[in-house]
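Pilot study result, target chain (788 residues):
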Amino acid sequence: MVGSLLGNEVQRVEDPELLRGRGSYVDDLPLEGVLRAGFVRSPIAHAEITSIDVSAARTAPGVVAACTAADLDLPVLKPFIELGDFPRRPLATDRVRFVGEAVAVVVADSAAALADAMERVDVEYEPLPVTVDPERAMDPDSPRQFPAHGSNIADGARDAAGADVLAGADVVVRARIENQRLAVAPMEGGAFAAVPGGPEQDYEITAYASTQMPHALRSGLAAAFGWEAERVRVIAPHVGGAFGGKAGAAAEHLAVVALARSLGRPVKWVETRSENMVAMPHGRAQVQFAELGLTSEGRIVGLRARVIGDAGAYAGFGGALALGPTRLMSQGVYRIPALSYDGAAVLTNTTPVGAFRGAGRPEAAAMLERVVDMAAVELGLDPAELRRRNFLRPEEFPHTTLTGANYDSGDYDRALTEALRLAGYEQLRAEQARRRAAGDPRALGIGLSTYVEITGGGAGEFAAVEVREDGATIKVGTSAHGQGHATAFSMIVADVLGLPLESVEFVQSDTATVPRGGGTGGSRSLQVGGSAVRTAAEVVLRRARDLAADRLEAAPEDLELTGGGLGVAGVPGVELSWPELVRAAEEDGDPLAADTDFVPGGATFPFGAHVSVVEVDTETGFVTPLRHIAVDDCGRVVNPTIVRGQQHGGAVQGIAQALWEHMSYDEDGNPTTATFADYAIPSAADVPALEVAGTVTESPHNPLGAKGIGESATVGATPAVQNAVIDALSHLGVRHLDMPLTPQRVWEAVRDARAGTLPDPWREPPRAFADLPPRPGGVPADADEAVV
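Predicted structure:
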């Protein structure tokens, strides 16, 4: 009997090609006769367009076309989720609403010619009042982004319970919390090439895209131009990161498609870093007003949350996160008897907000874990003890929360206990006390977070498996851009069929060869795509058993994998090799292959506990992260190497939000952190060594027992680091600080604490929350799947 590969350390098979510089990205593709497109973007946040003159650009050397919206018949861009009638056109027509919005496009035969010609486009603007602050945008007198709408609130709802959920509390802690706007900043920005037609003109367009969801992009392009989906082919070559920012059709994609068809030639657009920082949808961008009520013994009575989601200039996916995933996951890992959540998606003159690693779930965890830590200080309890007193217990699963999340399984205390053990929590507290007693200006901070998030669920996934004489081929609808799909899926097929791992070929990211798929997002790939692969491989195995049983004159149940095929258990030498089985299948008229569409039993809910240890120089405000311990439970682990990689990457992005990253604007809507000189992405030298581990609590919703891991460490890391910095200053009276915890912000808090002038962490939310429509009673049974 062949041993199982699953759960073992297996080196990633997709890495050598990239490490040797043999990757092929959109900008590397040798498309014959390709032209380059570049977008002229607004330098003003809000203005009427009075004129656009492209005549000088049209006559520039090397220019093939220079167009405005009036020159191209462009469809309206459809976001993933529409919150109302806020149409966005690929090229602005009468008004611009954020710095970076495209107003014209130039096409040239070289990058140099393109850059020169774009400088020749003359646009005249009449500035309009600007709204950048989402709180102020809720004011009835705030300048309107869409005058016909009547307000800047794109959508929202309130719970009828309101402050009643805090009744009976002995202590109520309150905080206004900013979950700041982040740039997605993948290594490779947006990149897209459109080729009119395709092989023998089977397609209206063949698109090469840096995308995480080829089939969703195909559907978006087809819907926008009124084509059948089968008339569009999308191919994703290597993709240099996405993190949620490359899902679906973008405004630039539609313009490039229209240009390619109009010119009858391939057209390529590759985003510059400066463009990427202002044009790719941003992430996070929430303002949260949280109130947590507790008894004097530390039992949670109720949570009241009022959350503003900054949608940016056009309402869509980003603003909807405050209304969907953040609300859904606002109960977190705790037993909360009563919960009231009001959410508003608000329009501002800033880059539209979309998904970023975690997409609404890190925001929920950051809000909840911050007020839990505040409550621990208020009650004089250790933050670990307060959490333990309120955890949902393993025997309570499956558990449906007050917001309709259907938690599958969990053991939250076990993860916290392991994280505290690895950290040496008691020794850290002793060292902290020693430093405080000695008056050491190097304050030690220990921060905890315990979290649960939602992954997978929703629609199913396609997979096909075919055994050849020399191995096997897998086709899967998910689309990797660094996650390790080729390795993990090949491991599953090798495990089911007993084939050598190196003989398995992985095919993805081409809608002509993979007929359908959900792509990569919501940490769904292994649990949904991997389960589809396993299901298809098991069908192939059953067929192979039947073939072997017939030819070996044995019962199918008496056959077992031998390492090279199938043989009769207990009878050495009586077997058929895989090449023989493939030939037998061909003799019967069918290849040894199967495909399937796997639909999970529901979303899964990974969880974990993080401990952050930081040192704060109270004389300068500088924060040094010393250690970060992450214990993440993603259900059954297929490949520990890949899981660790996801934990490392996720934790670094979470730490970066807490300490460094922030996409900010001045009062006129000008981005002030739009380059890497100002937007502080950490280097490897800035991040401490990561100590990662895990517990295993399998999910019943898929045959692998797996949960997501791609976003979990991001969810857990950010509040742990924020709590650690504030913990370092708690003996001075500091109760709350917003992220990022820059030296200036920390130093000012120390100064104010010593002067006795610390501001109250609470302020009343905008009155417009009271005017939101009441939320319909109850929650749908599949609320969790609808979000993912």
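One observation from the pilot: The longest strand covers residues 300-312. A full batch analysis is planned for the follow-on phase.
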